[in-house]
Amino acid sequence: MSIGIIGSGNIGAAFARALAKANIPAVIANSRGPESLKALTDELGPFITAGTREEAASADIVLVAVNWSKLPPALAGLPAWNGRIVIDANNPIEAPLFKPAELGGRLSSEIFADLVPGARVVKAFNHLQAHLVSGDPQAEGGRRVLFISGDDAAAKGEVARLIDRLGFFGLDLGPLSVGGSLAQFPGGPLPTLNLVRFG
Length: 199
What we know:
Number of domains: 1
CATH topology: Rossmann fold
Structural class: alpha/beta
Shape: globular
CATH architecture: 3-Layer(aba) Sandwich
Number of strands: 12
Radius of gyration: 15 Å
Order of helices and strands: EHEHEHEHEEEHEHEEHEHE
CATH superfamily: NAD(P)-binding Rossmann-like Domain
């Protein structure tokens, strides 16, 4: 399974670091072009390479972690998703003021899914702070928990296997209508919880 990353901010870079530590290759892209990612790819080479948005988006699994207001242009004009898996690692909030975005009563994952028509969307990697995503998943004698939600069981299974390869424990919260609400920040009860599974 090839992996792409769109967005090189805190979460995108943390996910890239977690992949590199597990010797899993991926292509990362941002709005500023591959040259702007040289420091990150020098740090994480040979596993993490820089590419264009189109190259990252052509992978079998694509993690998207972009500032909320920049999501539409970041995902515009990409090739058809054709049932590929897209991980929604976004939160509807804007730095530096951290003001919640206006969602019109919808879940952020519903809005995100509209931006990637034809993709199988799985919500994951949005609820932990970046240093915990890139840090040691073995904690207190157990494995740090990453929440997963989505409407396609096979897609969730693939993301769960990736999470397991990274050393975390994937906890399925159900469909996006349930899990997306629980893990959404702000608003949901689960973000920033640093849970560990034992046994």
